[in-house]
Amino acid sequence: MAELARNVERGPTPIATVDVVLLTLAGDRLCALLAERAGEPFKDEWALPGGYVHTEEDADAEATARRVLRAKVGFEAHWLEQLATFSGADRDPRGWSLTVAYCALVPHAALAAAIPGLSGPGAVAGTPSGRLTLRAVDEAGSMPFDHADILRAAVGRVRGKSSYSSLPAFLLDEEFTFPELHSVYQSVLGATLDRAGFRRKIMEQGFIEETGAEKVSGGRPARLHRLVERNLTQFQRTI
Amino acid sequence: MAELARNVERGPTPIATVDVVLLTLAGDRLCALLAERAGEPFKDEWALPGGYVHTEEDADAEATARRVLRAKVGFEAHWLEQLATFSGADRDPRGWSLTVAYCALVPHAALAAAIPGLSGPGAVAGTPSGRLTLRAVDEAGSMPFDHADILRAAVGRVRGKSSYSSLPAFLLDEEFTFPELHSVYQSVLGATLDRAGFRRKIMEQGFIEETGAEKVSGGRPARLHRLVERNLTQFQRTI
DNA sequence: ATAATAGTGTCTTTCAGACAATATCTT
DNA sequence: AAGATATTGTCTGAAAGACACTATTAT
Fold it and tell me: Which residue is nearest nucleotide D20, judged by alpha carbon to C1' distance?
C-alpha cells in the first residue's frame, strides 16, 4: 500500500481525521464536550475531541469515533451517528484536510458518573487523557479549525430530528418518566409543548413502553418508561 | 506537507475519493447515472462516477464533486448535497479507503440535452470521458465497492426529504406546471397524492410562484410555475 | 358535443392546541 | 387538608383526505 500514498494519478493525500460532537443535557441546557488540545496546532485550546484515522486499528471511520469516545470518556455513546464530512485546504494549518464528524448523545448521569467533575457547563475535569469541559452549545464561541461550524451542524441536526423522532430520549437514562421526556424535548427544541398533546403524540407513536415501576418526585409518582426500540424511530408524518 | 504523509502519529493515510449519485427522472422512473470504470479495480464495470480528491485543484470535497460532474456530464447540478461518507478497510481492494458521497439532482431534459443518447433507463451513451448509462434505482443490482449501499442511501435520503421539502422540484426544469410537480412528487415518493390537497399544501408553503406563461397539453393549458427560492425549502411542520 | 386535462369547492374526519379536571403522592 | 406533581378528558379550530364539481383547451 505504501507506494500508493503518492500515486501520480492521485497526488498528495488529504489528512483524514474524525471529530466527535458529544452532546448531553446538563439541567435543561444542551452542552457539548470539549477537550483541551494536547499538541499543535491550537495547543491548549478547547476543541472537539477527535483523532487521526488509524487504518491498522479502525475498521472504518465510525470505529475511529468509537475509539476516540472510549479514550476520552471511557464508555460508548447510546447514540452515535455520522454527521457530515468537513474538508478543504484552509481548515487546518497543516494542509488539505478532511474530517468525518460524528454526533453522539449521552445521558448526563452516565457522563458525570464516568468523569467526576463534569457536572454542568463550565466545569472542568482532569482525566488521564487530558482536560475536558462541558460548554453550552449556544455559548460555544470560537473554536479551532472549523469546529464551531461542526458544532452548529450537530446542534441543527439534533434539533431538526428531535421534532419528528425519538432522538431526545437518548439524552435520558434507560428508564425515564413522561415528565422527564417532556422536559428533554422542550430543552432540545427550545419550545414549550403542551403536556397533554405531547403525551398523546408520543403514545400513538408507540415507541416507548411502561416498565411497571414508578419514580417518586414530591407529588404523584410518575410511571417509568423505556424505549421499545434501541434505535431511532421516526414519527409517522404525511406530506 | 510531504513528510507528513507518513507521520508516525498518524500512520498510513486512507485513500480519499468522492463519488456522486446523480439522480434524474426518466418518465416516471427515478434513475441514477452510472459510468463505466476506465481502470482497475473493477475495470469496465458500471459504477458511480467519482474520482480522487485533488488537493492542489479542489478547494474542498464539494469542489471535487463538481469537478467530477463537469467532467462526466458537462454541467453543474441544480441540486448538490453531501450525502454521507463511506469508509473502511474492506470496501476497496486497494486498501483502507474513504469516499465522500454526494447526491445530485438534475432535470432529465438537461441531462439528455448534454449527453445525447441518455433517453431512459438502459440507454448507453459514449462520451469523451467514457461510457455512461442510466439505471432505474430500484433495479440497480450489484455494483463495485459499496456503491449499491451508497445508491440506496441516496435514494432513501431523497425520498425522505421529498415528503417535507421542495426537493423533487429540482428534478424539473426551471419552469414547470402544477401537474408536472404533482407527478414528480408521486414518482419520487411512490405514492398517489390527492391533486387538490397537494395543491393546497404546496401553495400554502409559498415556495413556488406563477411565471404568467402557460403550457399546452392536450386539454386545458396549465400555468407555468418556478421556485421562489433557488435553494431547498422545507415545509412547516409541528412536532 | 366530446374527450382530455387543469383547477376549485365542499364535506367529513382527524388532529393539534388550549385548558380544565381528576388522580396520587408527600408533608 | 394542603400542596405538589402526574395523568386524563374535553372543547375548538385547523388541517388532511376524499371526492365532486367547474373551467379551458383540442378534435
Answer: B196
